[in-house]
């Protein structure tokens, strides 16, 4: 079985569960039977980064040194301070270096998994046009404005648009990760991982 590279993008003010949830799912999958189907690592433009609530994270790679991912996870987190200054995804969505890196990774990647407002970053990278998508419920209108031809689904927890998989806010990223594991390796593998994690995942399909 091919071991897939799973790159988890992190940045200042990233929502902790947005990236840690999928990190846990992909990392734990296949550990008990030794199949170890995913090589999971973090990547950022600089190191260390300060996630939400000042959690310090030392990414494994920078954008310049990161191996080509088969799966790229783009989490969310952030907003605007009271003075209007953007932070988290609202800042990174205007980061031309990051957008260029995502577009560089895109052609050779098998899937990109968006969590929460990570969809805004992908939309700014012009990857969300003419497809179904979702994001955190507080950013649905913003996503539609950035990607006017996208079909933004307001009540969806996970949306499968082929190469791109989108999830709603924060904890929905865990469901999206299980969904992608099931899509790639089979539902039984995903359910075994969910059982080990004691996570109530039903194995449902998404559109």
Automatic annotation (TrEMBL):
Q: Which Pfam families match?
A: DJ-1_PfpI
Q: Which CDD domains match?
A: GATase1_PfpI_2 (cd03139)
Q: Residue limits of the DJ-1/PfpI domain?
A: 5-181
GO terms of biological process kind: regulation of DNA-templated transcription
Return the protein name: DJ-1/PfpI family protein
Organism annotation: Adonisia turfae CCMR0081
Q: Which lineage ranks, top first, belong to the organism behind this chain?
A: Bacteria, Bacillati, Cyanobacteriota, Adonisia, Adonisia turfae
């Amino acid at each position: 079985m091919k071991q897939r590279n799973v790159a988890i993008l992190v940045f200042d003010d990233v929502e902790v569960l947005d990236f840690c949830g999928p990190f846990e799912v992909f990392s734990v999958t296949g550990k008990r039977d030794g199949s170890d189907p995913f090589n999971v690592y973090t990547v950022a433009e600089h190191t260390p980064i300060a996630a939400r609530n000042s959690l310090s994270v030392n990414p494994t790679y920078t954008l310049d040194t990161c191996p080509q991912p088969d799966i790229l996870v783009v989490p969310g987190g952030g907003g605007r301070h009271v003075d209007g200054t953007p932070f988290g995804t609202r800042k990174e969505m205007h980061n031309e270096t990051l957008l260029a890196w995502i577009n560089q990774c895109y052609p050779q990647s098998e899937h990109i998994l968006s969590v929460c407002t990570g969809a805004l970053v992908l939309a700014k990278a012009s990857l969300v046009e003419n497809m179904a998508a979702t994001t955190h419920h507080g950013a649905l209108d913003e996503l539609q404005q950035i990607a006017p031809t996208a079909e933004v689904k307001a009540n969806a927890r996970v949306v499968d648009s082929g190469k791109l998989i989108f999830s709603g806010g924060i904890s929905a990223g865990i469901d999206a990760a299980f969904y992608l594991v099931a899509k790639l390796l089979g539902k039984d593998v995903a359910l075994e991982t969910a059982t080990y994690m004691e996570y109530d995942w039903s194995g449902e399909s998404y559109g």
